[in-house]
Amino acid sequence: MNQEEIWDVDAAQRYDTPGTGMFAPDVLRPTVDRLAEFAGGGAALEFAIGTGRVAVPLAGRGIPVTGIELSRPMIQQLRTRADEATIPVIVGDMATSVAPGEFTLVYLVYNTISNLLTQAEQVECFRNAARHLGPGGRFVIELWVPELRKLPPGQTATVWQAEPGYIGLDTYDVLRQHVVSHHFRFDDTRQARLTRSPHRYIWPGELDLMAQLAGFELESRHADWSGAEFTAESRSHVSVYRIPPSR
């Protein structure tokens, strides 16, 4: 499974769930609030902008937003919400593609850095973020914490969500630090729909080392966009990396 195959026309058309899930106001509003604060009145660049879930409301706050996106169908879906003049998008890989302009903020949300399936690509993603930022610029990443503590010996899968009409489970390859997320959606018929996506999981400490290699310093880490304390029990984190200001 490569990313272009996963984020096809069907996935793009099904991606937006207005008002629910990751589009719910209590999920989206804190995200946009914090990113607007981090931008500090400057321009923002979103890696893997997708359909504009975050970029559209952020641009609505008056923050100039540019995107980089590999999937043309996702960009086409974004264009139903914002035109090229409002949110320009570069078609390409977030680890290597370059957007014109100067930015105070680069951000990468909803676990998307894990879509890069090698450590080398993930390090290049950090370096690409640094390439777009000047002194004092920030790179913000939202990422889940691998749930390996839930894996007893001999078991390779964890169920991370089960609710009416949906089951989500992850299968782990701990040697390669890979995980495949399986999403089962079903109703009261005998049919179910399965979608899958591969990821390379990253421990917070490894993420910090990637940042250091690209010239960043860790500024803060919280368990969510509202600023909750990050603990050993946190299932995800929002990590803010900064290029040191010039001295």
From TrEMBL:
GO terms for biological process: methylation. Coiled coil: none annotated. The keyword Nuclease does not apply. It comes from the Bacteria. Residues 45-137 form the Methyltransferase domain. Keywords: Methyltransferase, Transferase. The keyword Methyltransferase applies. InterPro entries: Methyltransf_25, SAM-dependent_MTases_sf. Pfam families: Methyltransf_25. This is Class I SAM-dependent methyltransferase. It comes from Streptomyces endocoffeicus.
